[in-house]
Specification:
The protein is built from 3 helices and 2 strands. By secondary structure, the chain is mainly alpha-helical. The chain has a domain at 17-71. Strands 1-2 form a two-stranded antiparallel ribbon. It is elongated, with a radius of gyration of 19 Å.
């Protein structure tokens, strides 16, 4: 038997820009560790804080972390597989 929900659940969208404190929280790091890790992350390509807002563009930071972990997160449609391309997996 399924249970019916009688109320709507409000889902808050994830903010696009995050403060340094929020970025540290999302990464699970205290200030001391963050200082060491931030320098290394920036050296290997983590996007810097936005020069206007002083905050980090979270989708870009998340994409950096995914790439660093070996996951592809490209939003560039030219890099994705087209549904019109021939697939070879089903040929015998």
């Amino acid at each position: 038997m399924t249970e019916r929900l009688d109320h709507a659940v409000a889902v808050q969208p994830e903010p696009m820009f995050v403060s340094e404190a929020e970025l540290r929280r999302r990464l699970g790091m205290g200030e001391k560790k963050w200082r060491r890790v931030r320098a290394e992350f920036e050296r290997i390509g983590m996007p810097p804080a936005d020069h206007i807002t002083g905050m980090w563009f979270w989708p870009a930071v998340k994409a950096f972390l995914y790439r660093r972990a070996g996951l592809e997160t490209s939003l560039d449609p030219s890099r994705s597989i087209s549904v019109h391309e021939k697939e070879y997996w089903d040929e015998t």
